[in-house]
């Protein structure tokens, strides 16, 4: 079931910073950090799971089990990317039911045409606003708990302009979205206008490494009307950089000496091996216990 803490944090006026997770190692590391939420990124999850671009290739079947694993393997509320809801209205209903049953706390649905594209890449096209509003109504009706939050994202800014993006944001909030996500504003001034004109909780997408939107501090975002900031790429971009350096070191030198890496003992602890060892010790046959001693 959805975790009520995220909704409570927003109601209390807390600003929520959510790091991007893309596999269970990133989820376990982030889960220890004390964040109010984790953001299960579609781009990173598709890349790590399938090794393909986030361009509408992954299906509901590909994603629902991954998102459920993130939620069930974390103690922190999980916000999960669900692309377009993977189809029409019936697909949206099915997606909401599946994500909620998996333990996700908030689901993000966008108004792109199928196949969708990553929000900070070119060539995105959107469906009519009224069709998306129906998706939001269906999503809100399909959820079993009010603690399960609906995030409505519009990609209209890049192709149709800021006025249309704001109009859509207002429409989606009226249709039942708990949080509005205007993707890819291109300046702080645009973000201030969004914060001033949309009377609903707002999400900012901080894409490290070259996104279209300026990355503002949590303090600034809160002051201009935002409530949530996601950092979807910070995890997988950091990991890719470190892997490139480590593998390059190994290829060039033929050994791993001198690398600053995570300790193997720490990884064992992170993955929960101590519980396995404790279990084995408890249930080992007497002769095996004597051999171990």
From TrEMBL:
The keyword Lyase applies. It holds the Pfam family PEP_mutase. InterPro entries: ICL/PEPM, Pyrv/PenolPyrv_kinase-like_dom, Pyrv_kinase-like_dom_sf. One of its GO terms (molecular function) is oxo-acid-lyase activity. It comes from the Bacteria. Keywords: Lyase. SUPFAM superfamilies: Phosphoenolpyruvate/pyruvate domain (SSF51621). This is Isocitrate lyase/PEP mutase family protein. The lineage of its organism: Bacteria, Pseudomonadati, Pseudomonadota, Alphaproteobacteria, Acetobacterales.
């Amino acid at each position: 079931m959805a975790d009520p803490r995220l909704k409570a944090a927003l109601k209390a006026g807390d600003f929520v910073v959510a790091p991007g997770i893309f596999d269970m190692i990133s989820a376990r590391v982030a889960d220890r950090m004390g964040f109010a939420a984790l953001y299960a990124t579609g781009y990173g999850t598709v890349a790590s799971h399938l090794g393909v671009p986030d361009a509408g290739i992954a299906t509901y079947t590909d994603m629902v089990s991954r998102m459920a694993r993130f939620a069930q393997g974390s103690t922190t509320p999980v916000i999960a990317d669900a692309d377009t809801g993977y189809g029409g209205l019936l697909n949206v209903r099915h997606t909401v039911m599946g994500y909620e049953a998996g333990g996700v706390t908030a689901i993000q649905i966008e108004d792109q045409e199928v196949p969708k594209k990553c929000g900070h890449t070119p060539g995105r096209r959107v469906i009519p606003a009224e069709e998306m509003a129906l998706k939001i109504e269906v999503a809100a009706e399909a959820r079993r708990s009010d603690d399960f939050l609906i995030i409505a994202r519009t990609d209209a800014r890049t192709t149709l302009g800021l006025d249309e993006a704001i109009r859509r944001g207002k429409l989606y909030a009226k249709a039942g979205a708990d949080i509005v996500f205007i993707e890819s504003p291109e300046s702080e001034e645009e973000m201030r206008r969004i914060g001033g004109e949309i009377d609903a909780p707002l999400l900012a997408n901080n894409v490290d490494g070259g996104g279209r939107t300026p990355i503002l501090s949590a303090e600034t975002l809160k002051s201009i009307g935002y409530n949530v900031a996601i950092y979807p790429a910070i995890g997988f971009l950091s990991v890719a950089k470190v892997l490139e350096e480590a593998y390059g070191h190994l290829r060039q030198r033929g050994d791993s000496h001198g690398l600053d890496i995570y300790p193997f003992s720490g990884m064992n602890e992170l993955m929960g091996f101590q519980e396995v060892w404790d279990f084995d010790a408890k249930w080992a046959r007497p002769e095996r216990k004597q051999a171990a001693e």
